[in-house]
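During data preparation, a discrete fold description was generated, and the record follows.
___
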Amino acid sequence: MQPRLIVTGHDADGKAVFVRDEPPAPTRVALLPGSDFFLLWGTPDGAARVGERDPEPVLRPYFPGLGGSRALFLRWAPHSAEPEVHDPDEVAREVDEKLPGLMDPFDPGGEGMHTTDTVDYGICLEGELCLTLDDEAEVTLTPGTCVVQLGTRHRWVNRSDRPALMCYVQIGAARV
């Protein structure tokens, strides 16, 4: 499956039109070798707006703030893919440049465990992906599965020998 982004808007007369129809460009980082991030769309923090002329996505920082949103596809490489050895400072710089804010919620030394102040809708489109919570509680997502992630500590791992394609919609939320 190849990701595709279609965006609607309005022309000068207020008529509904397609303003974008294109494959999103993949973003790769050494942190997750062989994986592709497809940043699709985002809305600014606060309240989303519609009806603007020439809408542009908000894709930075990676995670939205309160009331903001992000939509993306992430193709996770098979877990069996051999990670390349890189300088950790160089990897951090690359992630901060290409996907700013991605590393902010991660536990130091937590093997991918992280907590975000977002409501996340994760939908498995292809392959299998494991979602692990505290105390190693785990579930495997298969195509057609939707998980609603409500700001809990978690990590994602592809243990299979083939890629897994996920769609994530993230909405910035207040932690209570």
